[in-house]
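Database export, one record per block. Field names are fixed; values are copied verbatim from the stored entry.
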Amino acid sequence: MSFTVQVTDSHGAAASASLSIPQAGAPIDLTQGLVTGKAKVSYTAAARPAKGVPFTDPDFHTRIIRVTDVQADWNGNTAVPVYPTVPTWNCDESYMLLYIRGGPGQYALFNGKTYAFLKWVSITPADIEQFNWDPVNPDVLWYISGKSLTQYHISSGTKTVTHTFSSNADWGDDPIYFSWDGSLYGLREQSSKTILSLKNGVEHSIAGSGSSPEACASGNYLFWAKSSQATILNLDMTTLRTMTMKNAIEHGDLGMDSQGQDYWVGVSFNEGPSGSSGLIMVEWVKSGVIKTIIGDANADPYPPNGALISSKALKNPGWVCAAATGNTALVPTYQDQEIIVANVETGKFARVCHHRSRGENGPIGYWAQPNVTLSPTGTRIVFPSDWGSGSVVDTYVVELPSYSG
């Protein structure tokens, strides 16, 4: 946005200048300053960095900050972002919430910019990862406890029940963030397995089984993974279409592109059209258009194991990040142990850093899997790592060159 300022002094002399202010929410190209292309990159051994001391990845030259020292600070063994589909940062990136195992509390609140520990948060969600930051109010967390949909206010520690279900409810086995305007939730009743949606406080339900439907980012549809395939539901729970990608049980996420269109992005192990595979494959929810960002269609190798994907850049739609465990030996890499950012519309992608976690191959197992999660602007990525088969898992943040602080 540009405008002209004119100033007149007491003698009537005038001067003017044109000023330009970038509009809030302008798209940011997350690939700027990063390694692009598919050439293998060296994997250089590196000691675990000290907490809070900036570390430069020796291979990708990106800036990494170790947020936690779970063993020294709390005598615990795990400090992690809970899941790639669940935002770690609140909507203005002023707070971060991490899950701690073996410490004096479960949910640790950090300053979202300095990464300083602030306090323990007292919430009791239906499962570890079943909380969500409000997409508008940076002070509010949402979770379900028993029958109660509850708001937790960070500043005061107060809790407000906003909706009561007829029986205990949850957000399913692999919950995904609710709609990006906060209007739509996908749920299930735990006892009857009845499938629910909650749109602006109004319930819709159908008999079902398995996991809950998940709210698409636009708030206009629900994504319901059943067995190996997913169905797209309208808000009244009628069927819109069946997804072509047969990877609903693989790791993936729901997002929205710059035009407001919902998509599913996930890793595919021979579950795409004609048995195609890829580390990052996209299917648009309404149109059914499928696009390969990294995969067979672009002459990429079979996707590495332990792949996880996040599409939680609420303020920079269309961007996703992925990480895989893959080959954990110290050999040159393309995809293995790498964090990658990509745009689902342009197909551009770039390689960010080595996360250096052996994932489920290491001594901590599941808790060391690379749960990468984008910040709302997409300019930072949080990830856990055992840092080469260490005895603990800590949380790290990589600040992309596009991050302005």
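Remark 1: Residues 1-24 have pLDDT under 50 and may be disordered.
Remark 2: The chain is about 0% helix and 40% strand.
End of record.
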